[in-house]
């Protein structure tokens, strides 16, 4: 005779099934037969820019590590936004050409072995010489914005992050919420947006929430300042193949983990974030239609000011 499940066990089973169904729906909506592109139709003009034309720091966007986001591709809306704010924008292939006061943006690097092969093992995107060079460059005054999205990008960037004391979960990080298909909102109300110079009005506009669109998570060194923090019950799923989940997919509780943090490092600075779409404006087109995700989304009303404050923090000495 089969044993009758208790109400607690029934609820646990219901929650597991509900979670898996949501994951499947999310996969279908955003991945299956989908085309992910920069939204080139949006207006990125800033009314009151930080700087007169090209008087801000030079922002250089890495395109030497098979980056999923590059200046003329999926990060073009970010580039246009920064130009509108008065920064100089360029791309870079040879990291040795970095200048001391540059802001280097590395978004979603990936090893050549994992291009079109988003399954374990995930290989490091950076050579040991590059990691040593970038660590010294930041220490001497360089400014680094490192963005590593969900698997495989978080795994590919982790050795570089480790050099500065950050450690990624190479998976898919989620706020524990009722509607799994909705973006993650880090807010003052839910205690996931921490009060800092990024959000408190010190560097520009004050805001009380920021929206992300399925990324990764990481732990931070003691001297870092957390910006976007996960709470107990939030979780990171770590599948063997990206977007393929089942009952046996490991789930890591994200208490004391983050999706955004900043750190003064020697004479330089590093900002680390675990989600890339929040910094740009993209569309996903599949059989169900076209969907916006990024700073032009109605669900992300404060992301532009958030981006501006992060880059201004990096700019400032």
Main sheet: which strands, in order across? 3-2-4-5-14-13-10
CATH topology: Rossmann fold
Quaternary organization = single chain
- Mean model confidence by pLDDT: 89
Derived structural class: alpha/beta
Structure notes:
- The protein has 317 residues and is of the alpha/beta class.
- The chain has 5 helices and 16 strands.
- The chain starts with 6 loop residues before the first helix and ends with a helix.
- The N terminus is likely disordered.
Supply the key terms.
317 residues, alpha/beta, 7-stranded mixed sheet
Brief summary:
By secondary structure, the protein is of the alpha/beta class. The chain has helices at residues 7-30, 76-84, 128-139, 153-162, 303-315, and strands spanning 35-38, 58-62, 88-92, 103-107, 143-147, 167-174, 184-187, 209-212, 215-219, 225-229, 235-237, 251-253, 258-265, 268-273, 281-286, 289-294.
